[in-house]
Predict the 3D structure of the following.
Amino acid sequence: MTVIKQQDFIDSIYDALQYISYYHPLDFVKALKKAYDREQNPAAKSAIAQILVNSKMCAVGHRPLCQDTGIVTCFVKIGMNVQFEGDMTVEEMVNEGTRRAYCDRDNPLRKSVLRDPIGARINTKDNTPAVTHIEMVPGDKVEVLIASKGGGSENKSKLIMLNPSDSIEDWVLEQLPHMGAGWCPPGMLGVGVGGTMEKAAVLAKEALMEPINIEELIAKGAETSEEKLRLSLYDKINKLGIGAQGLGGLTTVLDVKVKSYPTHAVAKPVAIIPNCAASRHIDFTLDGTGPVNLVPPSLDEWPDIELGSSDNARRVNLNNITKEEMATWKTGETLLISGTIVTGRDAAHKRICDLIAQGKPLPEGVDLKGKFIYYVGPVDPVRDEVVGPAGPTTSTRMDKFVETMLSETGLYGMIGKSERGPKAVESIKKHGAVYLMAVGGAAYLVSKAIKKSKVVAFPDLGMEAMYEFEVVDMPVTVAVDSKGNNIHVMGPQEWKEKIKEIDFKYIE
């Protein structure tokens, strides 16, 4: 009988969550470098470069890869000959390790979990509870698979009950273009098939814990139905041309993982869950000899990549910007922005729009006239940082507020990640505004452009409070220009055709 001490288990959860907050899995780094080397779209190549540079910065600085440090999912597989020493349940131990990891003084992680999701939606302030799955298995060890999954990618998950004769592949390929870029490609796609509705989703999530090894499968050849589906989806998804950050390009997924389970004769449950560019997961085993010992990877494992020269980028001072100047910006153009920007996410937008609807003034200190608003919820700063990692959140969630913000506040533009919906694009065009895109998955890199930071409204919202940032040379891409031209429509369309023209082969 193996005895696992309670504190050893808690310490291991804590160590694992801290570790994956700043160390990408090396299989992901290597796969992303290969995607960078083969990418032919300059915009997508630049985005991948920023993700790789950000990854190495985080590995060196031990700061989060992304400002969205996720909600924790933990699979605990307990050997039948294991006994825990202590009075806490497994779920309680996972939650305690999570609390410690997210409240760490040296590397605090953003707390995004809310209680009462139907009603008040109040932050739990320690990112608990985690979502824990427990399974009893043969043996005398405990295997733990743990991930911190960002909301942007989790929100793009899909689930369907297909008919037995329906094509899984056709359904998945139909969903990918509608998922947009909010999941921050390139990443992995987990596919779960079979069981019941909830089992399919669990299978898809667990599949994302597996290593990237699609090239090994290509070399070996598919033997099972799962492997055949993996290869086919990997090839056909990448040929959609969605590309890094949805800008169009050769690589949308680095790997596709498929797990299946027996199901009812009349059913075919299918779930797909994407992993974003901040892929954070690890597995470890406890055998009763103490907590896990996670060895830091060598920094030599990261490629040395120079970010593109800023010579061709347009430098912009937002403090004296005019709509006439904004009208000269072209979709796909790189800008280096400096000046004052204001931040705001879902909760802040709702409060502002509610105040406007009630005929009430905006909070003191909030003046959006002629300003740009950045959709971000930063990590708390440590030591000499002005702000912690501060990458963009998914912009589509703010689409319903765009018309009010542009027509009633004098706002000039927005900064975020991923695409905008048709109504938001129409409002941008109507008001001569613009939408700029920062790279999702490069949060620590982005934060280095922020030189001053202060909360200006709604401090009770925590990470969703409104800040005022002073930025210098913050890199962004013009995603929707003042005429309504939209790179997230144009880019994938262009590269889907280019991939056909160049006959690019994902599978030889």
